[in-house]
């Protein structure tokens, strides 16, 4: 028996047991409402999507070409339209996730107004956005299924059993738009208890995967800005533990933790951890500090800190703000230690924040990590903070230079110039950019590729294009040619914005509840009918 028929039978039997009190209830309508609301709580979503992610991780381990991707979003509608588009263009949502960017929450969702990515926004904005995203994804399910139900009714009305059977098969095999969200908890918004409390709220809202970084919570910076300050491993492990306990408490045993390290670009620490014995984690962390030897008390100024490393007294160099510096050129070594330590203490995936998209650089660090943890794999930020065009043109330039090619036609420092757009170098750079995700997953252990804040930029770009024309000579034609006609030509369902917002769903429900007396919005006078 199909899921549709099975549910219908269950509701029919339940109604018949009520002694006539439920005779106004149509079991088929109840069946449709049940199927349109597959996930009843955020925890249902978290458990389901955690299973999806775990299966995807296992498939990637077996075949690195089966990597996953996501795009960052700052509103439920944006997330919904992404997944509708993925399903329409690619036929399935498999291997496609959503990313919740703390940067975009700060810049676009804070009650304080636009903020930099420094954990100043309200922490409650993060679980609120998770809940909003899943509300819109669930509405996408309800809307799409509603259209299938109408197809089924139309086929039945015509007596077309073949069409009716096909419609019911599509209903029973319907693939949900609900996909995993990788959710950014920044540096945890406080101590480990604060991290646990926020993680719990995020999981209750539906998060199956939480990404946390090893920066100091009250001095957190965007990963692509200066001034980043890391915490000792013991402090970060405590927060990993806090997130894991939150998952376990709420029954999401498959919950995924992404441990992000900013050590590659972070040259500062706020805290010198206490080492219990040579070689322990605190000792290894302190060994990267920029220190000078202490020969006598004369080498120590008032208020200085002195530590003993390898039997030698040394003074860590401290800035006027009390922060300590790491030695230059220790970033990659610290990244490798961070990643190994995180994986050995409960993290499932890694995030290495880099300053450029370079497969060789990433692969070099991953190879070192995999010497200790063979199945180590990354979530990688395909960041809009990189100048992708310039980076890859320079990478091609450098490769050609090593090959001894004639580069007299190119100025490496000016490769972003439009005059190079149609050159062989630019064409090859675009090929390398196109292949970056495939190559990165094959050679550098990247399981998941994401763009953190693409829709921040697409919203700005599309709005600029419309404003240029609409407020200029084109007037209304700017909207018609640039937006509405494109929606029609490309088959975007959103051109019928009333339907997208739920008017047909509402009409269906009114008919369920009120029968023939329902006052519905979708009649002849509805201008949405102009779009066919």
Automatic annotation (TrEMBL):
Which reaction is recorded as catalysed by this protein? D-threo-isocitrate = glyoxylate + succinate
Question: Which keywords appear in this protein's UniProt record, sorted alphabetically?
Answer: Lyase, Metal-binding
Keyword set includes Methyltransferase:
no
The source's superkingdom equals Bacteria
Against InterPro entries, the record matches this protein to:
ICL/PEPM, Isocitrate_lyase, Pyrv/PenolPyrv_kinase-like_dom, Pyrv_kinase-like_dom_sf
**Pfam families in UniProt:** ICL
Query: Which is one GO molecular function term here?
Result: isocitrate lyase activity
Asked whether the keyword RNA-binding is assigned, the reply is: no
PANTHER family reported for this sequence = BIFUNCTIONAL GLYOXYLATE CYCLE PROTEIN, ISOCITRATE LYASE/MALATE SYNTHASE
Q: What is this protein called?
A: Isocitrate lyase
Organism of origin: Modicisalibacter tunisiensis
């Amino acid at each position: 028996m199909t899921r549709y028929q099975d549910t219908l039978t269950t509701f029919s039997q339940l109604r018949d047991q009520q002694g006539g009190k439920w005779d106004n209830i149509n079991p088929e309508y109840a069946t449709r409402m049940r199927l349109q609301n597959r996930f009843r709580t955020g925890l249902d979503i978290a458990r389901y999507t955690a299973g999806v992610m775990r299966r995807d991780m296992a498939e990637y381990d077996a075949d690195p070409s089966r990597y996953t991707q996501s795009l960052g979003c700052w509103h439920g509608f944006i997330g919904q339209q992404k997944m509708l588009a993925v399903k329409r263009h690619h036929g399935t949502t498999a291997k496609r996730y959503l990313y919740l960017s703390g940067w975009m929450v700060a810049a676009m969702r804070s009650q304080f107004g636009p903020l930099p990515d420094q954990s100043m926004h309200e922490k409650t904005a993060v679980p609120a956005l998770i809940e909003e995203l899943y509300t819109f994804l669930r509405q996408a399910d309800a809307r799409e299924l509603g259209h299938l139900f109408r197809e089924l009714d139309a086929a039945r009305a015509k007596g077309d059993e073949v069409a009716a059977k096909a419609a019911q098969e599509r209903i029973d095999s319907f693939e949900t738009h609900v996909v995993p969200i990788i959710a950014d908890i920044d540096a945890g918004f406080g101590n480990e208890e604060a991290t646990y409390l926020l993680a719990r709220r995020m999981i209750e809202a539906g998060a199956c995967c939480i990404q946390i970084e090893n920066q100091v919570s009250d001095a957190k910076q965007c990963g692509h800005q200066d001034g980043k300050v890391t915490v000792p491993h013991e402090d970060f492990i405590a927060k990993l533990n806090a997130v894991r306990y939150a998952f376990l408490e709420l029954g999401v045993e498959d919950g995924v933790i992404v441990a992000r390290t900013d050590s590659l670009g972070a040259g500062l620490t706020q805290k010198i951890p206490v080492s219990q014995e040579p070689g322990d984690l605190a000792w290894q962390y302190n060994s990267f500090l920029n220190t000078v030897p202490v020969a006598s008390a004369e080498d120590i100024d008032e208020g200085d800190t002195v530590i003993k490393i390898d039997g030698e007294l040394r003074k860590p160099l401290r800035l006027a703000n009390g922060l300590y510096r790491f030695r230059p050129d220790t970033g990659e070594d610290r990244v490798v230690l961070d990643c190994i330590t995180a994986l050995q203490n409960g993290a499932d995936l890694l995030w290495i924040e880099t300053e450029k998209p370079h497969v060789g650089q990433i692969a070099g660090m991953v190879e070192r990590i995999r010497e200790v943890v063979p199945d180590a794999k990354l979530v990688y930020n395909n960041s809009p903070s990189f100048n992708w065009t310039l980076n890859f043109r320079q990478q091609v330039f450098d490769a050609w230079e090593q090959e001894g090619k004639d580069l007299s036609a190119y100025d490496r420092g000016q490769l972003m110039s439009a005059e190079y757009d149609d050159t062989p170098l630019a064409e090859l750079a675009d090929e390398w950019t196109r292949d970056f995700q495939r190559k990165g997953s094959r050679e550098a252990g990247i399981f998941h590729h994401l763009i953190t804040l693409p829709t921040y930029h697409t919203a700005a770009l599309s709005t600029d294009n419309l404003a240029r024309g609409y407020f200029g000579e084109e007037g209304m034609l700017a909207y018609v040619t640039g937006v509405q006609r494109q929606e029609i030509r490309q088959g975007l369902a959103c051109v019928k914005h009333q339907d997208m917002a739920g008017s047909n769903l509402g009409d269906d429900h009114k008919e369920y509840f009120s029968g023939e007396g329902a006052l519905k919005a979708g009649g002849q006078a509805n201008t949405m009918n102009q779009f066919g």
